[in-house]
Amino acid sequence: MCQTCGCALPNHLHPDANEHDVHTVAVLEGLKAHNDAAARHNRAHFDRAGLLVVNLMSSPGAGKTRLLEATIEALGGRHRLAVIEGDLETENDARRIRARGVPAVQITTGSACHLDAAMVHRAAHELALDELDILFIENVGNLVCPASFDLGQHASVTLLSTPEGDDKPLKYPVMFRASDLVLVTKADLLPVLDDFDVAAVEAHMRRLASPAPVLTLSSKTGALEAWLAWLEEGLAERRRAFRPVQRGERLLTPPGAPNHAPGHALDQPLTPPGSPAP
Prior knowledge:
alpha/beta
């Protein structure tokens, strides 16, 4: 389990926490503050490039990569897209995206159950942000930890596939409260899943006091119109809010060329507070 979000430390919030547990909480809070600073830095780059950055979250197998493939097919002729992929191991998903002619950077986290802003920052160095319109970040499959880590995205989208059941917003409220949009995926299975109620998903979201829209789609059948319209609207909003990069102005430089002054905090390894520097 992940050591950076605390999910491997089940006793750290126990009311009888000892001195070690108190130190653990302090370290985790320091890591969260460092991540938030890195996320703000990422967002500044994304904003200046005038692109829309969408963080896709879900449980494993909910259809994130398949949705991206279908989105590329639908939007690739109109917009310049790229993907940052997150998985514990393999480049399988990044290869699928590259096969569609879209740049993809794979992040392998090892044992971490989520992406963090520093990981995304390093991956973004491999992309020419000023040559993109939409950047998708496919987070590690997990309905818990990814919701707690800002990556610098403009919107967070959670996928809920019909085989998972319609009660997931109530079981995983932190993830769904953090969502700007919920996509009910694999809708082509609804005729044979009589225990899944899309209206119930929306009711659960309102019970969580979330105004996030709930859209139903199928990447298999191509019923993506509402999702594509949501992306187009989001991109238009970003372009109204921030100026596009000027010709010849680069924001993140190619791999191997630093774009920060030497010693910049985000060019250093992510070291927990209180730990010796590497």
